[in-house]
Amino acid sequence: MNKKSISMRKSILLILAVALLVGLGMGASAVVQAALTIKADAINGDTAVSINGIATTTYALGTSTTSGTIVIGGEAQTGALTVGSSSGANTVNVGTGAGATTVNVATGAGGNTVNIATGATAGKLIKIGTGLVANQVMIGTRTGAASTTIQAGTGQIMFKGQLTTVATSGLIAYPGTATTTATSNDTAGTVTAQATSHVYTGVGFSATYGTAPRCVVTPGDVVTAAFATTTYVGTTATSVTIYHATSAEALVFTYFCVGTE
What we know:
Elements: H1 3-23, E1 172-174, E2 179-180, E3 188-192, E4 198-204, E5 214-219, H2 222-225, E6 232-235, E7 239-247, E8 252-258
Antiparallel strand pairs: 1-4, 2-3, 3-8, 4-7, 5-8, 6-7
């Protein structure tokens, strides 16, 4: 590096230093407000980089950007990326603008873990989709042997509105030509017996319960109601069976099953 390059580098560093001092109000004659504009493709630091101000400083990053991209964090970073670590009462806003915003959290291909309000030091209030509009909230997946656990300790789990189950393919009604309605599933449904002589009617579940579920069965029409006093229910982890007096009628039963552990 020649002397001219060294001199130019020192001049640039001096200009940056003066600009920072003026902008932060550190000089003997502090300026109320100053701006530092750096036109560069990259700003690199060899060691820890710190940007700091005073207690009431406001930091703005990319506020004029309209179609650009802002990336924070290393491509192969293994350390923590912390936003909003404060000992005081503070608010962290994400996607609160007036535009239609999509917020993606842990959508990468890796085996991700998402923790929300997992601290055990104080009671948390967690709100999801509580705005006074017709929100649609989806939790969990229908793919594979997934599971969703809702725990309420010694309290209650409360539902406001209708509890609706979704139709499931793979149900098997028996014996013979017995059928289930199109909206039936492993939790609730309607089964119609074959119209030939039979003493039981059942439904094979599309998926196996951990243990035999508890099922409630009711007659689905007047004809079937006549068999109510001779009907009882048996369950296994794979099926619910309704036993009744001999009949050649197409008896109709509705069922509601809840698994237990």
